[in-house]
Amino acid sequence: MSRDRHAGDIECPLNSRGSGGSARGAILLVLADLLGRTVAAPTQLPAGLLAALVGAPYFFWLLHKSRRKA
Description:
Blueprint: H1 20-38, H2 47-69
Helix pairs in contact: 1-2
InterPro entries: ABC_BtuC-like, ABC_transptr_permease_BtuC
Transmembrane segments: 45-63
Membrane topology: Multi-pass membrane protein
């Protein structure tokens, strides 16, 4: 049984790929932590800041892509 689509629904392309999205998120955080520790040594940049620099543009790209289809 298919779900009814509503005007404001956003379809995520990662839903049908199982845990691939979780693995990519974990890898993103590990790389952000690693970069945060090494780029500005001896100080550290927060991993959340570096992850947001990559994750926010990707989220807005997904949002724009899903709105264009509708």
